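job 3f2a | input accepted
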Amino acid sequence: MDTILPSVLIEAARKVLDANRAAGRRIAVAESCTGGLVSAALTEIPGSSDVFEAGFVTYSNEAKHDVLKVSTDVLETFGSVSIAVAWSMAQGALHNTQADIAVAITGIAGPDGGSEKKPVGTVVFAQAERGADPQHIVADARLLENNGRGGVRLQAALCALELLMPGAPSSDDAVEESA
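job 3f2a | predicted structure (179 res):
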């Protein structure tokens, strides 16, 4: 296949599309630190439009607020790299599409921007399903290996694709923010 993307990413995207096609599910993503990498991987696969509904790249806080309706209060209180923001992004992607499931990614890819509390490689993921109880938050903050900006973004994209697989943690598996 003619692609500039890493084969591991393309194969993960292919598995997500095949599994969701078989499950009859449509998917959407809301990306920040990955800058559209997940969407690019999904759309690299011919025929992906029957499963992949939309991708939102909301890199700035203003875009998160304007496009995905992430509350300014949430952004200011928790910061853009937080479970609250990732969850709001995933909910916004779901509300702006007809997708059955949405995943959001926000984080610090580096080389700058990290802090003692949120070092480079801190990435937060959230998954929202249509019809699920919105009080049950499915989200996770991870510290990915800091092997350069591209490496953090690739790891984050692969984690996000895992969350789009049928059988991935669901709204029954609520996760609390620990920090």
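job 3f2a | The chain has six helices and five strands.
job 3f2a | closed
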